[in-house]
Amino acid sequence: MLSKDSIKKLIPKLVTTTVVVAASACAYLLYSRYQCAPWTRDGQVRADVVQIAPRVNGYLVKISVKDNQAVSKGDLLFQIDPSQYQLAVDQAEVSLIQAKQSVAQLEAAVRAAKAGVKQSEAAAISAKSQIDAAQAGVESANASVAEAESGVTSATAKIAQVKAQLAEAQREAERAQKLADSKAGSVQTAQAKAASVQAYQAEVDSANAGLAQAKSAVVQAQAAVREAKANLVIAENGLAEAEAGVLTANADLDQAKANLGEPGDANYRIQSANVQLEQAQLNLNWTSIYAPADGYISNMSLLGDTFVSAGTPFALFVDSSSFRVDAYFQETKLKHIQPGDEAIITLMSHHNQPLKAHVESIGYAINPPNLAQTDGPSNIVPTIQPTFEWIRLAQRVPVRIRFDNIPKDIHLVSGMTASIAIRK
């Protein structure tokens, strides 16, 4: 057994050993928790901040908000004098009406040209039918000439035949008369022969009349031929004129179509006028500047009747739904962080009021200072300064933390300092 003196000497050693073991255990537990449940004091509150800049020039005639005022989506913030832009819309509407009228007139010209083509084609068809009729008339007249000439030939042959018979009858009548005068023949025979002469003479006269009529028919038929040929020439000239008219009408139609372009609303005149009207309406709409979302107006210093220029910002808009915390964790801790992990945010301004949150995402690019000129533009990729430059430190990577709920009594400002702990 130990003596009292030995026990007294042993107690300090036991106490020291116990304290060392407890401290070591606490240190191990804290280190393990630090490794498995990362935390950082390097966090900043961020929000989507948009510069408010007009899209058109003009004087401000209405300012509906004040600096740092809360606004709702769709609220009218600023109104630029719309007078000149309304006039531009009115002028564009007039130009559109004029363009439609111009297109309507050109379309009417195309329709008229098409009607002209149809009329010319109908005239050409009529001229062709007239040529056919004239050619038939020439053929008919030539046939009449041939027929009349045949009649002349027949009449001439008939006259020759009848004259021969008349001469024979005259010889027989003279002989019969001589016989009757000498009492060698009868008077009746002589009289019969004389009557036969008269009959043949009548036939000769009739044949001569027929010949004259046949010759007259030839003359008339030849005149008809000349007239038919003249009509044919007229018809051919009419066809040439009609075909020339068709060519002219088609050329007029092509020109009318070229002048028109696309018909209806597809016409470039109407499309151009519509574009001008849409642009004028856009400019008019842009004279009214509305809140793009729920948020706050910041850094505004404007007075009424101030001239503002397109693209020149004069205020900031902070989206109230976009507040989050960008927490910067060492790269060695990323294996213990996953999107969706529960997180606790402690704002420097409210250090006794931890806020529940969750990991939304982990960054994919950083820009260490020694690589800033080779690994991407520093104004896009975040450049995170190391704490010490004389030792090899783990790089810090941005992790986006999203608030689960923001109490109404907390006034968040983009740029505030925050501490973040990841819970596992």
UniProtKB/TrEMBL annotation:
Keywords: Coiled coil. Residues 322-422 form the p-hydroxybenzoic acid efflux pump subunit AaeA-like beta-barrel domain. The keyword Coiled coil applies. Residues 49-318 form the Multidrug resistance protein MdtA-like barrel-sandwich hybrid domain. It comes from the Bacteria. InterPro entries: AaeA-lik-b-barrel, MdtA-like_BSH, MFP_Efflux_Pump. Transmembrane segments: none annotated. It holds the Pfam family Beta-barrel_AAEA. Residues 89-123, 152-259 form a coiled coil. This is Multidrug resistance protein MdtN. It comes from Novipirellula artificiosorum.
